[in-house]
Every structure is written in C-alpha cells, then in structure tokens.
Amino acid sequence: MKKIISFAFILLVSTNISAQKNTANQPELDSGTIEAQFDYIINKSTKFRDFQLIRKLSILKVKAHTLDSIKTIRQDLTTANKSIDQNIGTISQLKAEVERLKNEVSSISEDVDSISFMGINLSKAGYNMIVWSLIIILLLGLIVFISMFKKSNIDTNSSQKNLTKLDNEFEEFRKKSMLKEQETMRKLQDEINKNTH
C-alpha cells in the first residue's frame, strides 16, 4: 500500500509539475482571439467520462482576457454612443439649417420671380404678359397712327391738287369772264356808239 501511495504521490506531483509547466508555457492563451483561446483550452483539456477537465489558471487567464475585451467593447460602445448622440445633434442642427435655407431660398425665389409694378407684386410671367400686351397695343396704335397719317397725307395732297386745279379753273373762268365782260362792254359801247350816231 505504501508503494501505491508513494506511486500516487509521485504521479500527483509529476502531474502538478507538468500542469504548472504547461500553464506557464501557454503562449496561445496570451495572443489570438477569445474564440481561439477557448478552442485551445477545450482541445488541451483532459476528458473524464462526459466531462472536460480544464486547468483553473487557463480558464482564469481566458476570463481575464474576456473581461478586458468586454471592457474595451463597452468603452468603444460608450464612445460610439456619444459620437452617435453628437451626430444626432449635428444632424438635427443641419436639418434645421437646411429647413431655414429652404425657406430663405423660397423667399428669395418669390422675390426674384415677382416684380413690383405700380405697387403691385406680380409674377414674372404676369409682368411679362402686361409688358408685351402694352408693347403690342402701342405697336398697333403706331400702325393705326401711321396708316391714318398716310391717309390724311394722301387726302391732303389730293385736296391740294384739287385746290390747285380749282384755282386754275377759277383763274381760267375769271379770265374768260373778263374777256366776255370786255367783249360785252365793247359790244355795248359799239351799240351805244351806233345809236348815238
């Protein structure tokens, strides 16, 4: 029995020493992903019936790495949430600014698209319609005036020609009348002269 106890003691000490050597020499647990570390522990653990025997130091090392990773993830998440909150605030400000600029643009567009005409704000299309209507009316009036001027000029020239013709006819008539009168006076004088003799 002493032999069995001493054999068990030697086996236990050698297992403990090899476990310490294996725990000390496990660089796989100091690098790589957490998933790779868990895979390494599972592959290197001893099986006992349906159980896996895992060294306490190995699991504590992976636990420390996992907690560090979770802490880093939480810090990153907090930073990301702060950044998201800042971005949401910035987006809200930018939306408000865009809305203000849209209102400004629509106001400027209305000002640009409208023209004050005799104290009335008109759209450019309405203003253009009024201006072109006035231009067309003035052109029509000019055409009517020019045609009336030409007609009156023609009438004036015709009247002047008729007046000149009438003057000429009147002058001829006067000359003829004078000649007739002179002739009649001569005849009368001749008759008077005849009767007196």
Q: Which secondary structure elements does this structure contain, and how are they paired or packed?
A:
Layout: H1 2-24, H2 34-44, E1 46-48, E2 51-53, H3 56-113, E3 114-117, E4 120-123, H4 124-196
Antiparallel strand pairs: 1-2, 3-4
Helix pairs in contact: 2-3
Descriptive notes:
The chain is mainly alpha-helical and 197 residues long. It has 2 domains: 2-90, no CATH class; 126-194. It is 84% helix and 7% strand. The protein has 4 helices and 4 strands. The strands form 2 sheets. The chain has a two-stranded antiparallel ribbon with strand order 1-2. A two-stranded antiparallel sheet has the order 3-4. The longest helix is centred in the last third of the chain and has 73 residues, at 124-196. It is rod-shaped and about 215 Å long. The termini are far apart. Mean pLDDT is 82; it is low at 16-24.
Give a quick rundown of the structure.
By secondary structure, the chain is mainly alpha-helical. 84% of the residues lie in helices and 7% in strands.
Provide the residue-averaged pLDDT.
82
Number of strands: 4
The largest sheet has its strands arranged as 1-2
Shape annotation: rod-shaped
Give the helix proportion (percent range): over 70%
What portion of residues belong to β-strands? 5-15%
Low-confidence stretches: 16-24
Number of domains: 2
Radius of gyration: 64 Å
Distance between the termini: 221 Å
Largest sheet: 2 strands, antiparallel
Global structural class: mainly alpha
Number of helices in the DSSP assignment: 4
The SSE order reads HHEEHEEH
